[in-house]
UniProtKB/TrEMBL annotation:
The chain crosses the membrane at residues 27-48, 55-77, 105-123. It is found in: Cell inner membrane; Cell membrane. The lineage of its organism: Bacteria, Pseudomonadati, Pseudomonadota, Alphaproteobacteria, Hyphomicrobiales. Belongs to the MscS (TC 1.A.23) family. Keywords: Cell inner membrane, Cell membrane, Ion channel, Ion transport, Membrane, Transmembrane, Transmembrane helix, Transport. It is a multi-pass membrane protein. Residues 302-323, 487-509 are annotated as: Disordered. Residues 331-441 form the Cyclic nucleotide-binding domain. This is Small-conductance mechanosensitive channel. It comes from Labrys wisconsinensis. InterPro entries: cNMP-bd_dom (IPR000595), cNMP-bd_dom_sf (IPR018490), LSM_dom_sf (IPR010920), MS_channel_C (IPR049278), MscS_archaea/bacteria_type (IPR045275), MscS_beta-dom_sf (IPR023408), MscS_channel_2nd (IPR006685), MscS_channel_C_sf (IPR011066). Gene3D superfamilies: 1.10.287.1260, 2.30.30.60, 3.30.70.100, Jelly Rolls. The keyword rRNA processing does not apply. CDD domains: CAP_ED.
Length: 509
Protein backbone atom coordinates (compact mmCIF):
# COMPACT_ATOMS: atom_id res chain seq x y z
CA UNK A 1 0.00 0.00 0.00
CA UNK A 2 2.86 2.35 0.81
CA UNK A 3 4.40 1.88 -2.64
CA UNK A 4 1.03 2.52 -4.30
CA UNK A 5 0.60 5.80 -2.40
CA UNK A 6 4.15 6.84 -3.23
CA UNK A 7 3.59 6.01 -6.90
CA UNK A 8 0.44 8.14 -6.96
CA UNK A 9 2.26 11.08 -5.40
CA UNK A 10 5.09 10.73 -7.92
CA UNK A 11 2.64 10.66 -10.85
CA UNK A 12 0.98 13.86 -9.64
CA UNK A 13 4.38 15.42 -9.07
CA UNK A 14 5.52 14.44 -12.58
CA UNK A 15 2.45 15.98 -14.22
CA UNK A 16 2.86 19.20 -12.24
CA UNK A 17 6.62 19.42 -12.73
CA UNK A 18 6.56 19.00 -16.52
CA UNK A 19 3.92 21.70 -16.86
CA UNK A 20 5.73 24.17 -14.62
CA UNK A 21 9.22 23.60 -16.02
CA UNK A 22 8.54 24.37 -19.70
CA UNK A 23 10.31 27.73 -19.39
CA UNK A 24 13.30 26.33 -17.48
CA UNK A 25 16.66 25.40 -19.07
CA UNK A 26 16.86 22.00 -20.76
CA UNK A 27 19.45 20.59 -18.37
CA UNK A 28 17.24 21.34 -15.37
CA UNK A 29 14.23 19.69 -17.00
CA UNK A 30 16.31 16.63 -17.83
CA UNK A 31 17.72 16.37 -14.31
CA UNK A 32 14.27 16.69 -12.72
CA UNK A 33 12.78 14.13 -15.13
CA UNK A 34 15.58 11.67 -14.39
CA UNK A 35 15.02 11.99 -10.64
CA UNK A 36 11.24 11.52 -11.01
CA UNK A 37 11.72 8.52 -13.30
CA UNK A 38 14.15 6.93 -10.83
CA UNK A 39 11.64 7.36 -7.98
CA UNK A 40 8.76 6.01 -10.06
CA UNK A 41 10.93 3.06 -11.15
CA UNK A 42 11.58 2.14 -7.50
CA UNK A 43 7.84 2.24 -6.76
CA UNK A 44 7.01 0.11 -9.83
CA UNK A 45 9.65 -2.51 -8.93
CA UNK A 46 8.16 -2.88 -5.45
CA UNK A 47 4.60 -3.18 -6.84
CA UNK A 48 4.90 -5.38 -9.97
CA UNK A 49 8.56 -6.16 -10.46
CA UNK A 50 10.10 -5.10 -13.76
CA UNK A 51 8.08 -2.55 -15.81
CA UNK A 52 9.14 -4.46 -18.93
CA UNK A 53 7.33 -7.62 -17.78
CA UNK A 54 4.99 -6.57 -14.98
CA UNK A 55 3.33 -9.18 -12.73
CA UNK A 56 0.12 -7.83 -11.17
CA UNK A 57 -0.38 -9.59 -7.80
CA UNK A 58 -2.82 -7.18 -6.20
CA UNK A 59 -6.18 -8.49 -4.98
CA UNK A 60 -9.26 -6.73 -6.26
CA UNK A 61 -10.02 -5.18 -9.60
CA UNK A 62 -9.45 -1.63 -8.38
CA UNK A 63 -5.95 -2.45 -7.11
CA UNK A 64 -5.01 -4.15 -10.38
CA UNK A 65 -6.25 -1.17 -12.39
CA UNK A 66 -4.21 1.16 -10.24
CA UNK A 67 -1.06 -0.90 -10.76
CA UNK A 68 -1.69 -0.81 -14.53
CA UNK A 69 -2.08 2.97 -14.39
CA UNK A 70 1.21 3.29 -12.51
CA UNK A 71 3.11 1.10 -15.03
CA UNK A 72 1.52 2.97 -17.98
CA UNK A 73 2.58 6.26 -16.39
CA UNK A 74 6.13 4.90 -16.11
CA UNK A 75 6.22 4.14 -19.85
CA UNK A 76 4.84 7.57 -20.75
CA UNK A 77 7.32 9.30 -18.44
CA UNK A 78 10.18 7.31 -19.93
CA UNK A 79 9.02 8.25 -23.45
CA UNK A 80 8.74 11.91 -22.44
CA UNK A 81 12.24 11.90 -20.95
CA UNK A 82 13.65 10.29 -24.13
CA UNK A 83 11.98 12.96 -26.28
CA UNK A 84 13.46 15.71 -24.08
CA UNK A 85 16.93 14.17 -24.40
CA UNK A 86 16.59 14.09 -28.20
CA UNK A 87 15.28 17.65 -28.32
CA UNK A 88 18.29 18.84 -26.32
CA UNK A 89 20.83 17.00 -28.47
CA UNK A 90 19.83 15.70 -31.89
CA UNK A 91 16.94 18.12 -32.47
CA UNK A 92 18.90 21.25 -31.58
CA UNK A 93 21.99 20.29 -33.57
CA UNK A 94 20.48 18.81 -36.69
CA UNK A 95 16.73 18.62 -37.00
CA UNK A 96 15.99 22.09 -35.69
CA UNK A 97 17.51 23.57 -38.81
CA UNK A 98 15.03 21.60 -40.92
CA UNK A 99 11.90 22.67 -39.06
CA UNK A 100 9.51 21.18 -36.54
CA UNK A 101 8.13 18.44 -38.79
CA UNK A 102 11.02 15.95 -38.48
CA UNK A 103 11.28 16.45 -34.75
CA UNK A 104 7.54 16.01 -34.25
CA UNK A 105 7.55 12.84 -36.39
CA UNK A 106 10.32 11.26 -34.33
CA UNK A 107 8.64 12.25 -31.07
CA UNK A 108 5.33 10.84 -32.34
CA UNK A 109 7.01 7.50 -33.16
CA UNK A 110 8.45 7.32 -29.64
CA UNK A 111 5.07 8.00 -28.04
CA UNK A 112 3.37 5.51 -30.38
CA UNK A 113 5.87 2.80 -29.42
CA UNK A 114 5.26 3.54 -25.72
CA UNK A 115 1.47 3.32 -26.15
CA UNK A 116 1.68 0.04 -28.08
CA UNK A 117 3.96 -1.38 -25.38
CA UNK A 118 1.45 -0.39 -22.71
CA UNK A 119 -1.39 -1.98 -24.68
CA UNK A 120 0.57 -5.23 -25.13
CA UNK A 121 2.38 -5.71 -21.81
CA UNK A 122 0.23 -3.76 -19.35
CA UNK A 123 -3.35 -4.01 -20.62
CA UNK A 124 -2.74 -7.40 -22.30
CA UNK A 125 -4.89 -6.51 -25.31
CA UNK A 126 -4.49 -8.20 -28.72
CA UNK A 127 -2.45 -5.86 -30.91
CA UNK A 128 -3.72 -7.33 -34.19
CA UNK A 129 -7.37 -6.71 -33.35
CA UNK A 130 -6.54 -3.21 -32.23
CA UNK A 131 -4.65 -2.50 -35.45
CA UNK A 132 -7.55 -3.84 -37.54
CA UNK A 133 -10.00 -1.61 -35.68
CA UNK A 134 -7.68 1.38 -36.01
CA UNK A 135 -7.42 0.70 -39.77
CA UNK A 136 -11.17 1.17 -40.16
CA UNK A 137 -10.99 4.37 -38.11
CA UNK A 138 -8.07 5.57 -40.22
CA UNK A 139 -10.08 5.09 -43.42
CA UNK A 140 -12.94 7.16 -42.04
CA UNK A 141 -10.63 9.90 -40.84
CA UNK A 142 -8.70 9.84 -44.13
CA UNK A 143 -11.85 10.50 -46.15
CA UNK A 144 -12.84 13.35 -43.84
CA UNK A 145 -9.39 14.93 -43.73
CA UNK A 146 -8.13 14.51 -47.28
CA UNK A 147 -6.83 18.07 -47.64
CA UNK A 148 -5.08 18.11 -44.27
CA UNK A 149 -3.55 14.68 -44.81
CA UNK A 150 -2.33 15.77 -48.26
CA UNK A 151 -0.51 18.67 -46.61
CA UNK A 152 0.97 16.37 -43.94
CA UNK A 153 2.29 13.75 -46.37
CA UNK A 154 3.50 16.45 -48.77
CA UNK A 155 5.33 17.94 -45.80
CA UNK A 156 6.97 14.58 -45.16
CA UNK A 157 8.08 14.44 -48.81
CA UNK A 158 9.38 18.02 -48.65
CA UNK A 159 11.21 17.18 -45.41
CA UNK A 160 12.89 14.17 -46.99
CA UNK A 161 13.91 16.08 -50.12
CA UNK A 162 14.87 19.19 -48.10
CA UNK A 163 14.87 21.84 -50.84
CA UNK A 164 15.30 24.51 -48.14
CA UNK A 165 16.09 24.91 -44.45
CA UNK A 166 15.07 27.38 -41.78
CA UNK A 167 16.70 30.75 -42.55
CA UNK A 168 17.10 30.14 -46.30
CA UNK A 169 15.84 32.74 -48.74
CA UNK A 170 13.48 31.09 -51.24
CA UNK A 171 11.28 31.99 -54.17
CA UNK A 172 8.07 30.03 -54.61
CA UNK A 173 5.93 30.11 -57.70
CA UNK A 174 3.09 32.50 -57.10
CA UNK A 175 5.32 34.44 -56.65
CA UNK A 176 6.34 34.49 -52.99
CA UNK A 177 9.87 35.42 -51.93
CA UNK A 178 11.34 35.71 -48.46
CA UNK A 179 13.13 33.88 -45.65
CA UNK A 180 11.84 30.53 -44.39
CA UNK A 181 10.70 31.21 -40.83
CA UNK A 182 9.10 27.89 -39.84
CA UNK A 183 8.26 24.45 -41.23
CA UNK A 184 5.45 22.70 -39.33
CA UNK A 185 3.13 19.76 -39.95
CA UNK A 186 0.87 21.46 -42.45
CA UNK A 187 2.65 24.43 -43.99
CA UNK A 188 5.77 26.49 -44.59
CA UNK A 189 5.88 30.00 -43.14
CA UNK A 190 7.88 32.55 -45.14
CA UNK A 191 8.75 36.04 -43.87
CA UNK A 192 8.59 38.35 -46.88
CA UNK A 193 10.65 41.50 -47.45
CA UNK A 194 7.63 43.57 -46.45
CA UNK A 195 7.58 41.99 -42.99
CA UNK A 196 4.51 39.83 -43.70
CA UNK A 197 4.21 36.10 -42.97
CA UNK A 198 3.13 34.01 -45.97
CA UNK A 199 1.74 30.58 -45.04
CA UNK A 200 2.14 28.09 -47.90
CA UNK A 201 0.53 24.61 -47.48
CA UNK A 202 2.92 21.74 -48.09
CA UNK A 203 0.70 20.39 -50.87
CA UNK A 204 1.12 23.70 -52.72
CA UNK A 205 4.87 23.93 -52.00
CA UNK A 206 5.40 20.36 -53.26
CA UNK A 207 3.80 21.22 -56.62
CA UNK A 208 5.43 24.64 -57.04
CA UNK A 209 8.75 25.58 -58.56
CA UNK A 210 11.15 26.49 -55.76
CA UNK A 211 14.34 28.54 -56.10
CA UNK A 212 16.62 28.50 -53.07
CA UNK A 213 18.58 31.76 -53.25
CA UNK A 214 20.82 30.78 -50.31
CA UNK A 215 22.29 27.67 -51.93
CA UNK A 216 25.06 27.18 -52.97
CA UNK A 217 25.86 30.84 -52.14
CA UNK A 218 23.71 33.85 -51.21
CA UNK A 219 25.09 35.77 -54.21
CA UNK A 220 22.40 36.99 -56.57
CA UNK A 221 22.80 37.63 -60.29
CA UNK A 222 20.48 39.89 -62.25
CA UNK A 223 20.38 42.23 -65.23
CA UNK A 224 18.83 45.50 -66.37
CA UNK A 225 18.12 46.78 -69.86
CA UNK A 226 18.74 50.34 -71.02
CA UNK A 227 17.96 52.08 -74.32
CA UNK A 228 20.44 54.33 -76.09
CA UNK A 229 20.34 56.36 -79.27
CA UNK A 230 21.31 54.35 -82.34
CA UNK A 231 23.76 57.08 -83.39
CA UNK A 232 26.02 56.38 -80.39
CA UNK A 233 28.70 53.75 -81.09
CA UNK A 234 28.23 50.58 -79.00
CA UNK A 235 31.80 50.74 -77.72
CA UNK A 236 31.11 54.24 -76.35
CA UNK A 237 28.03 52.99 -74.55
CA UNK A 238 29.97 50.02 -73.13
CA UNK A 239 32.64 52.39 -71.80
CA UNK A 240 30.10 54.62 -70.06
CA UNK A 241 28.31 51.59 -68.59
CA UNK A 242 31.59 50.26 -67.21
CA UNK A 243 32.14 53.60 -65.50
CA UNK A 244 28.63 53.36 -64.01
CA UNK A 245 29.40 49.84 -62.75
CA UNK A 246 32.56 51.09 -61.04
CA UNK A 247 30.47 53.75 -59.28
CA UNK A 248 27.96 51.19 -57.94
CA UNK A 249 29.58 49.93 -54.70
CA UNK A 250 27.20 47.02 -54.10
CA UNK A 251 27.92 45.36 -57.43
CA UNK A 252 30.59 42.67 -57.12
CA UNK A 253 33.76 42.75 -59.17
CA UNK A 254 33.66 38.92 -59.39
CA UNK A 255 31.85 37.48 -61.23
CA UNK A 256 32.74 40.30 -63.61
CA UNK A 257 29.82 42.47 -64.79
CA UNK A 258 29.14 42.56 -68.51
CA UNK A 259 27.25 44.69 -71.02
CA UNK A 260 25.87 43.41 -74.33
CA UNK A 261 23.95 44.85 -77.27
CA UNK A 262 20.69 42.85 -77.38
CA UNK A 263 18.47 44.78 -79.79
CA UNK A 264 19.07 47.09 -82.76
CA UNK A 265 16.45 49.64 -83.78
CA UNK A 266 16.07 52.52 -86.19
CA UNK A 267 16.27 55.23 -83.54
CA UNK A 268 17.53 53.41 -80.47
CA UNK A 269 19.43 50.30 -79.52
CA UNK A 270 18.94 48.28 -76.36
CA UNK A 271 21.72 47.07 -74.08
CA UNK A 272 21.61 44.54 -71.25
CA UNK A 273 23.85 44.87 -68.18
CA UNK A 274 24.53 41.70 -66.20
CA UNK A 275 25.88 41.94 -62.65
CA UNK A 276 25.98 40.16 -59.29
CA UNK A 277 25.48 41.31 -55.70
CA UNK A 278 26.45 39.72 -52.39
CA UNK A 279 22.87 38.92 -51.33
CA UNK A 280 19.28 39.53 -52.32
CA UNK A 281 19.05 42.35 -49.78
CA UNK A 282 21.46 44.39 -51.95
CA UNK A 283 19.65 43.79 -55.23
CA UNK A 284 17.14 46.65 -55.38
CA UNK A 285 19.60 49.22 -54.07
CA UNK A 286 22.23 48.05 -56.56
CA UNK A 287 19.75 48.29 -59.46
CA UNK A 288 18.68 51.78 -58.49
CA UNK A 289 22.28 53.00 -58.05
CA UNK A 290 23.34 51.45 -61.36
CA UNK A 291 20.53 53.08 -63.33
CA UNK A 292 21.21 56.44 -61.66
CA UNK A 293 24.89 56.23 -62.51
CA UNK A 294 24.18 55.16 -66.12
CA UNK A 295 21.88 58.15 -66.56
CA UNK A 296 24.49 60.44 -65.00
CA UNK A 297 27.25 59.11 -67.26
CA UNK A 298 25.08 59.52 -70.34
CA UNK A 299 24.17 63.10 -69.46
CA UNK A 300 27.78 64.04 -68.70
CA UNK A 301 28.90 62.57 -72.04
CA UNK A 302 26.07 64.26 -73.97
CA UNK A 303 24.52 60.91 -74.87
CA UNK A 304 20.75 60.66 -75.39
CA UNK A 305 18.87 57.54 -74.35
CA UNK A 306 17.00 57.74 -77.67
CA UNK A 307 17.23 59.81 -80.82
CA UNK A 308 14.82 62.71 -80.86
CA UNK A 309 12.81 63.32 -84.04
CA UNK A 310 14.77 65.68 -86.26
CA UNK A 311 17.87 65.47 -84.11
CA UNK A 312 20.65 63.18 -83.09
CA UNK A 313 22.78 62.27 -80.17
CA UNK A 314 26.35 63.22 -79.58
CA UNK A 315 28.91 60.59 -78.71
CA UNK A 316 31.53 62.95 -77.27
CA UNK A 317 31.05 65.55 -74.53
CA UNK A 318 31.25 69.22 -75.42
CA UNK A 319 34.07 70.93 -73.42
CA UNK A 320 32.11 74.17 -73.15
CA UNK A 321 29.12 72.23 -71.92
CA UNK A 322 31.33 70.60 -69.27
CA UNK A 323 32.47 74.00 -68.04
CA UNK A 324 28.90 75.21 -67.81
CA UNK A 325 27.92 72.13 -65.81
CA UNK A 326 30.93 72.79 -63.60
CA UNK A 327 29.71 76.28 -62.70
CA UNK A 328 26.14 75.03 -62.16
CA UNK A 329 27.16 73.42 -58.85
CA UNK A 330 25.65 74.83 -55.63
CA UNK A 331 28.80 76.82 -54.83
CA UNK A 332 28.20 79.22 -57.73
CA UNK A 333 24.41 79.55 -57.56
CA UNK A 334 24.57 83.13 -56.27
CA UNK A 335 27.01 84.73 -58.72
CA UNK A 336 26.01 86.79 -61.75
CA UNK A 337 25.91 85.37 -65.27
CA UNK A 338 28.88 87.38 -66.59
CA UNK A 339 30.95 86.33 -63.57
CA UNK A 340 30.02 82.72 -64.20
CA UNK A 341 31.06 83.01 -67.84
CA UNK A 342 34.36 84.55 -66.84
CA UNK A 343 35.09 81.65 -64.46
CA UNK A 344 34.02 79.28 -67.20
CA UNK A 345 36.70 80.63 -69.51
CA UNK A 346 39.34 80.50 -66.79
CA UNK A 347 38.76 76.85 -65.81
CA UNK A 348 41.76 74.66 -66.61
CA UNK A 349 41.47 71.25 -68.22
CA UNK A 350 43.46 68.26 -67.00
CA UNK A 351 43.65 64.69 -68.28
CA UNK A 352 44.65 61.75 -66.10
CA UNK A 353 45.56 58.16 -66.91
CA UNK A 354 44.72 55.22 -64.64
CA UNK A 355 46.90 55.40 -61.54
CA UNK A 356 47.54 59.16 -61.76
CA UNK A 357 46.77 61.15 -58.60
CA UNK A 358 44.64 64.26 -58.94
CA UNK A 359 45.92 65.36 -55.53
CA UNK A 360 47.17 63.66 -52.40
CA UNK A 361 46.14 63.75 -48.80
CA UNK A 362 47.64 66.81 -47.11
CA UNK A 363 48.07 68.87 -50.33
CA UNK A 364 47.05 72.54 -50.05
CA UNK A 365 46.97 73.79 -53.64
CA UNK A 366 43.56 75.45 -53.09
CA UNK A 367 41.69 74.29 -56.19
CA UNK A 368 38.20 73.10 -56.98
CA UNK A 369 37.93 70.11 -59.34
CA UNK A 370 35.03 68.98 -61.49
CA UNK A 371 35.09 65.45 -62.96
CA UNK A 372 34.00 65.77 -66.59
CA UNK A 373 34.53 62.08 -67.41
CA UNK A 374 36.06 58.96 -65.91
CA UNK A 375 36.06 57.32 -62.47
CA UNK A 376 38.32 58.12 -59.51
CA UNK A 377 38.86 56.49 -56.13
CA UNK A 378 38.98 58.35 -52.81
CA UNK A 379 41.39 56.89 -50.25
CA UNK A 380 42.45 58.06 -46.80
CA UNK A 381 45.56 57.07 -44.89
CA UNK A 382 45.53 56.84 -41.10
CA UNK A 383 48.90 55.85 -39.71
CA UNK A 384 50.23 53.09 -41.94
CA UNK A 385 46.79 51.93 -43.06
CA UNK A 386 45.10 53.18 -46.22
CA UNK A 387 41.37 52.63 -46.74
CA UNK A 388 38.97 53.42 -49.56
CA UNK A 389 36.19 55.91 -48.87
CA UNK A 390 34.44 55.31 -52.18
CA UNK A 391 34.49 56.44 -55.80
CA UNK A 392 33.45 59.55 -57.71
CA UNK A 393 32.60 59.97 -61.38
CA UNK A 394 31.40 62.37 -64.05
CA UNK A 395 29.38 65.23 -62.58
CA UNK A 396 31.05 65.12 -59.13
CA UNK A 397 33.05 68.06 -57.81
CA UNK A 398 35.61 68.02 -55.00
CA UNK A 399 37.87 70.42 -53.17
CA UNK A 400 35.49 73.31 -52.41
CA UNK A 401 36.77 73.59 -48.82
CA UNK A 402 40.37 73.72 -50.07
CA UNK A 403 39.46 76.37 -52.66
CA UNK A 404 37.75 78.61 -50.09
CA UNK A 405 40.03 78.14 -47.07
CA UNK A 406 43.31 76.60 -48.27
CA UNK A 407 42.73 73.71 -45.86
CA UNK A 408 44.71 70.55 -46.69
CA UNK A 409 42.85 67.76 -48.43
CA UNK A 410 41.73 64.96 -46.15
CA UNK A 411 42.06 62.22 -48.78
CA UNK A 412 43.88 61.18 -51.95
CA UNK A 413 42.14 61.06 -55.34
CA UNK A 414 43.45 58.53 -57.88
CA UNK A 415 42.13 57.89 -61.40
CA UNK A 416 40.79 54.38 -62.05
CA UNK A 417 40.04 55.05 -65.72
CA UNK A 418 41.16 57.68 -68.24
CA UNK A 419 39.63 60.86 -66.81
CA UNK A 420 39.12 64.50 -67.74
CA UNK A 421 38.97 67.09 -64.96
CA UNK A 422 38.27 70.84 -64.90
CA UNK A 423 40.17 72.89 -62.32
CA UNK A 424 39.36 76.29 -60.79
CA UNK A 425 42.13 77.85 -58.69
CA UNK A 426 42.27 80.43 -55.92
CA UNK A 427 43.64 83.12 -58.24
CA UNK A 428 40.59 82.71 -60.47
CA UNK A 429 38.18 83.29 -57.58
CA UNK A 430 40.09 86.08 -55.76
CA UNK A 431 39.15 88.91 -58.19
CA UNK A 432 35.49 87.92 -57.94
CA UNK A 433 35.53 88.16 -54.13
CA UNK A 434 37.46 91.42 -54.27
CA UNK A 435 34.76 93.11 -56.36
CA UNK A 436 31.79 91.51 -54.53
CA UNK A 437 33.01 90.54 -51.02
CA UNK A 438 29.50 89.81 -49.75
CA UNK A 439 29.55 86.65 -51.88
CA UNK A 440 31.54 85.06 -49.06
CA UNK A 441 28.30 84.53 -47.18
CA UNK A 442 26.79 82.85 -50.21
CA UNK A 443 29.90 80.71 -50.69
CA UNK A 444 29.81 79.64 -47.04
CA UNK A 445 26.15 78.62 -47.25
CA UNK A 446 26.65 76.88 -50.60
CA UNK A 447 29.68 74.95 -49.35
CA UNK A 448 27.76 73.75 -46.31
CA UNK A 449 24.78 72.85 -48.50
CA UNK A 450 27.02 70.96 -50.94
CA UNK A 451 28.59 68.95 -48.13
CA UNK A 452 25.17 68.07 -46.73
CA UNK A 453 23.89 66.60 -50.00
CA UNK A 454 23.39 62.85 -49.63
CA UNK A 455 24.76 61.93 -53.04
CA UNK A 456 28.00 63.83 -52.33
CA UNK A 457 28.89 61.82 -49.23
CA UNK A 458 32.15 60.53 -50.73
CA UNK A 459 33.24 63.75 -52.48
CA UNK A 460 32.45 65.91 -49.45
CA UNK A 461 34.57 63.67 -47.19
CA UNK A 462 37.70 65.05 -48.89
CA UNK A 463 37.45 68.27 -46.88
CA UNK A 464 34.78 67.49 -44.30
CA UNK A 465 37.20 67.04 -41.40
CA UNK A 466 39.35 70.09 -41.98
CA UNK A 467 37.07 72.99 -40.94
CA UNK A 468 35.17 72.85 -37.64
CA UNK A 469 31.51 73.98 -37.74
CA UNK A 470 31.04 77.74 -37.37
CA UNK A 471 34.56 78.65 -38.59
CA UNK A 472 34.16 78.37 -42.35
CA UNK A 473 33.29 82.02 -43.02
CA UNK A 474 36.23 83.28 -40.94
CA UNK A 475 38.58 80.91 -42.74
CA UNK A 476 37.36 82.20 -46.14
CA UNK A 477 38.01 85.84 -45.11
CA UNK A 478 41.48 85.01 -43.79
CA UNK A 479 42.43 82.94 -46.83
CA UNK A 480 41.42 85.62 -49.37
CA UNK A 481 42.44 88.50 -47.03
CA UNK A 482 39.13 90.28 -47.48
CA UNK A 483 38.04 92.63 -44.66
CA UNK A 484 34.91 91.80 -42.71
CA UNK A 485 31.82 92.81 -44.63
CA UNK A 486 28.45 92.83 -42.89
CA UNK A 487 25.72 91.67 -45.25
CA UNK A 488 23.36 94.61 -45.70
CA UNK A 489 20.15 95.01 -47.71
CA UNK A 490 22.13 95.25 -50.96
CA UNK A 491 23.84 91.95 -50.22
CA UNK A 492 20.53 90.23 -49.51
CA UNK A 493 19.13 91.69 -52.70
CA UNK A 494 22.14 90.41 -54.59
CA UNK A 495 21.48 86.92 -53.22
CA UNK A 496 17.89 87.07 -54.36
CA UNK A 497 18.79 88.62 -57.74
CA UNK A 498 22.34 87.63 -58.73
CA UNK A 499 21.91 89.21 -62.14
CA UNK A 500 21.86 92.61 -60.45
CA UNK A 501 25.64 92.30 -60.10
CA UNK A 502 26.10 91.98 -63.86
CA UNK A 503 27.25 95.64 -64.14
CA UNK A 504 29.87 95.37 -61.42
CA UNK A 505 33.45 96.41 -62.42
CA UNK A 506 35.35 93.57 -64.05
CA UNK A 507 38.15 91.93 -62.13
CA UNK A 508 41.42 90.68 -63.50
CA UNK A 509 41.26 87.53 -65.64
Amino acid sequence: MTSQIAAGLLICLCATAWRMMRSLPAWLRLATGAVLLAGLTAAVVQMVGSPLQPVFVATGAAAVVWEQVVVAAWWLLAARLLVEVLRSTLFNRGLAAKGRLQGDLLAGLIYLAAVLTVVDTVLDLPIRALLATSGVIAIVLGLALQSTLADVFSGIAVGIERPFNIGDRVWLEGPIEGVVDQVNWRSVRIRTDGGDIATVPHSVAAKSRVINRSVPTPQRSDSVRIPCAASVPPERVAELVRHALLLSPRILAQPQPAVALVRIGRRSNEYEIGFAVASSNDLWHAKSTLLEQVLRQFRSAGVETADRPGGGATSEPDPASGSRRFLAIPLFHDIADDQRERLCRQALSRSLEPGDALFRQGDTEGSLFFVASGVMEVTRTVGARSSSLGRIGAGDYIGEIGLLTGAPHAATITALTPSDVLELRKEHLAPLLAETPHLMHAFEASARRGQALFDRRVAASVGAETVPPGQLLARIRDYFRVHHVRPGPDAHAARRHPAAQANSPPGGD
